Amino acid sequence: MQLTPRQIVEALDSYIVGQQEAKRAVAIALRNRYRRSRLEEAQREEITPKNILMVGPTGVGKTEIARRLAKLVDAPFVKVEATKFTEVGYVGRDVDSMVRDLVETSLRLVKDRMGKDVENAAEQNAQERILDALLEQERGAVKKPPQNPIEALLTPSREPQLPPEEHERRKTRREELRLRLLAGDLEGQIIEIEVEDQQPGDTIPGTDMSMSDMLGSFMPKKKKLRKVSVMEARRVLKAEEAQKLIDMDAATSEAVYRAEQDGIIFLDEIDKIAGRAQSGQPDVSREGVQRDILPLVEGSTVNTKYGPVRTDHILFIAAGAFHVAKVSDLIPELQGRFPVQVNLQPLTVDDLRQILTQPKNALIKQYAMLLGVDGVALEFREEALDEIAELCVRVNEAKENIGARRLHTLLEYVLQDLAFSAGESGPETVAIDRDYVRAKLSHMAEEFDLSRQII
Q1: Which residues contact 56 (CB under 8 A, 6 or more apart)?
Q2: pLDDT confidence of 455, banded at 50, 70, 90?
Q3: CB-count burial class (<10 Å; 0-12, 13-18, 19+) for 220
Q4: Could you give the count of Cα atoms lying within 13 Å of 29 in the half-sphere of its Cβ?
Q5: How far from 3 is each of 23, 26, 113, 168, 295, CA to CA, in Å?
Q6: What is the DSSP letter of 85?
Q7: If DSSP states are collapsed to H, E and C, what string results for 188-244?
Q8: Contact between residue 30 and residue 69 where contact means Cβ atoms under 8 Å apart
Q9: How far apart are CA 395 and CA 349, in angstroms?
Q10: What percent of the chain has pLDDT over 90?
């Protein structure tokens, strides 16, 4: 289903309060992707996304807007910190790694979707392997330790031929166990299964590949024995069997295509790499990183272990507070590659009050669900919400302005005692009013009043 910009904004409104300018900008960028996909191929190649630069204080919704946008259309999305990168040739992460991370995310999305298509077959195969383990356990057969890959390659195992009577007896017993397994009678029984050893290897410097990735197509998978319950074995073996049933060539091909055409890279803290070096020494984590990011945003090809990936049509959304640096401190070439600049506004008391209750994942709703598990019904009065929102603004002004993240701190203090004792006295209803909030947050109010008196 393709959403119009108005529908996209309405969907974002379900999770993010205010910031209509930023929502409109990302909604238009997303819709333009759909419009581009309807054009002829020659025309599609000429149209590149209009990258977005979000400017605003921390905690006002910059990251959440980009993350919710990606979830809305199930697009590959990665969030990276610009400060984590260093210029190519120096110790640290190079900027190409963000594109490799995007392809990994895209592959995970594709495999999840393909896994649902083969879910029934994978579950059936996992069930057969569990039955094999249960039968071996009944016979008292001792599992041999898994062979190393070289030994497994040179000496393939052969199953001994069973007499017809023994074969029929085992078949009958297998069906009996199958019925008990389907009835859920064996979920807690411990069995020993053989699974692939998924230990990651060290990557080769400058690439996203390890030696095991390079030799994977030539060497058999390393195995290990695990003792787990039948319930856990079903989960592990089902995932392993689904992996075998997925066509990895098709999956990687689709993952690369989706990363190129639908990928979104959110480049946070870009203001921290703004500005030029004051001395004659090279600045490997500021202007040098800007120069390295520029080819990616302009459009280049990055080599990954899944093949070359073009960045021409990846949507880049950069964000920063720009308290100290200014947008004009970025190198001009990089500024030109983010033609859409939107300013996010600081949150008001009304905004913070809405954040507490209105979004689908509102904080008050989250705490109500958590405490509801222990039989505590929370009731927040309107006056209590007003008090929390007002105190949030005052503390942000007196200390560091961290936006809506301050609400997490305040609510933790308000509900800390209740969360500690919940469930001890049975089901109860607790009403939170202004006096309750003031009593729990009195220490913060005192700190605030003291800070105003200090000159």
Answers
A1: 19, 22, 62, 319, 321, 343, 344, 345, 346
A2: very low
A3: middle
A4: 30
A5: 14, 12, 21, 59, 31
A6: B
A7: CCEEEEEEECCCCCCECCCCCCEHHHHHCCCCCCCEEEEEEEHHHHHHHHHHHHHHH
A8: yes
A9: 12
A10: 15
Confidence of residue 210 (pLDDT cuts 50, 70, 90): low
Task: Judge whether residue 185 has pLDDT over 50.
Answer: yes
Tokens 């209590």, located at residue = 384
Place of tokens 């900027």: 95
**DSSP summary character for residue 148:** P
pTM: 0.77
Residue 35: CB partners within 8 Å, gap ≥ 6?
Answer: none
CA torsion 176-180-183-185 (nearest 10°) is: 170
Contact (CB, 8 A) for 263 and 106 = yes
Q: How far is CA 270 from CA 309, 320, 441, in A?
A: 23, 5, 35
What pLDDT score was predicted for residue 231?
A: 86
Q: Which residue has the tokens 């997925």?
A: 246
List pLDDT tens digits, range 27-73: 998 898 889 888 888 888 888 888 999 998 888 888 888 888 888 88
Please report, in angstroms and rounded to a whole number, the separation of the first and last CA atoms in the chain: 58
The pair of structure tokens assigned to 143 is 């599992």
* Residue with the two structure tokens 């093949």: 307
Please give the Cα distance from 87 to 290 (Å, whole number): 9
Please state, for a pLDDT cut of 70, what percent of the chain lies above it: 83
